[in-house]
Amino acid sequence: MDCPRCSVEMSEITRDDGTLHRCAECGGLWVDVTDLNKILLHGNLPALSAIGGYANTDEMSGMCPACTVDLVVVEGGEKRSVSYETCESCGGIWVDGDEDEPAAELDWKGASAQIVEFFKRFAKRK
User: Residue 23 contacts by C-beta under 8 Å, 6 or more apart in sequence?
Assistant: First the structure.
């Protein structure tokens, strides 16, 4: 599966009950919505459907690495300053990596922590 940002092959991070894909170039993560909801639950956050957000159909986005359709940008956080991308076809979620941090190797625990921290910022409203 290729990264929607860098077009390089992403590495798989697997666990008995799920799989994440991570780009070694940009640090972004691709996660199935079912696995995402498990991660959010274990991070004491509500399911993605309860977090909400606003679709921004005007913003250009990448292509879904699973089914090669356009991704939709969903904005949230304070003043809609945080965004992720989702595929309306397969339900996959793309979360950008931290631009200020190098893309270090992560295990499931580290990748899950990155996702939880992102959605804490996404769910924050003023």
Answer: 3, 5, 6, 8, 10, 29, 97, 103
